[in-house]
């Protein structure tokens, strides 16, 4: 099956830079035929306990990721009515690259910085990893 048109994947975690990336993308004069997908990745902490409280916490993280993806999709729907929202689980660096390859995206848009300074120190920059490993061009947007 062949596809027509440009595919744009925008990754969001609901941070100010991710919101700036969504706003920047919304301002681009791209055709309405562009296929657009808003992706949010949730990292579920590993824990030795299999108890309802842990399950509820994990679900709350999934719900938060879904809200971020849906908010981005909603912000882009006026220009691209068929925009989709997607939530993945795992390391954001790997999940974003994998989603861009699996879909496959022609352009990947990400914010320069996400929500977690501690995570950035421990894991490294998501945008830095993505720019080096993505299967397509990457646009990094920094909040002004």
How would you describe the overall organization of this protein?
With 144 residues, the chain is of the alpha/beta class. It has a single domain, classed as Rossmann fold, CATH 3.40.50. Helix content is 44%, strand content 19%. The protein has helices spanning 16-27, 52-76, 92-102, 117-123, 126-133; strands at residues 7-11, 35-42, 84-89, 107-111, 138-141. Strands 3-2-1-4-5 form a 5-stranded parallel β-sheet, sandwiched between helices. The N and C termini lie far apart (41 Å).
Tag the structure with descriptive keywords.
single chain, about 140 residues, alpha/beta, Rossmann fold, 5 strands
CATH H level, superfamily name:
HUPs
For this structure, the CATH topology is Rossmann fold
Number of helices: 5
- Estimate the global geometry from the Cα principal axes: globular
The protein's oligomeric status is: single chain
User: Could you report the average pLDDT, rounded to the nearest whole number?
Assistant: 88
Total strand segments = 5
Write down the secondary-structure element order.
EHEHEHEHHE
How big a fraction of the residues is strand? 15-25%
How is the largest sheet built, in terms of strand order? 3-2-1-4-5
């Amino acid at each position: 099956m062949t596809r027509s048109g440009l595919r744009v994947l925008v990754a969001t975690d609901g941070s100010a830079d991710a919101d700036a990336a969504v706003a920047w993308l919304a301002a681009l004069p791209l055709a309405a035929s562009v296929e657009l997908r808003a992706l949010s990745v949730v990292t579920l902490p590993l824990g030795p306990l299999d108890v309802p409280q842990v399950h509820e916490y994990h679900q709350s993280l999934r719900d938060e990721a879904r809200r971020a993806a849906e908010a981005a999709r909603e912000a882009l729907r006026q220009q691209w009515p068929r925009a989709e929202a997607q939530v993945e689980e795992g390391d954001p660096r790997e999940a974003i690259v994998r989603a861009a390859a699996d879909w496959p995206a022609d352009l990947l848009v990400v914010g320069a910085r996400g929500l977690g300074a501690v995570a950035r120190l421990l894991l490294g920059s998501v945008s830095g990893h993505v720019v080096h490993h993505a299967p397509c061009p990457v646009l990094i947007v920094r909040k002004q």
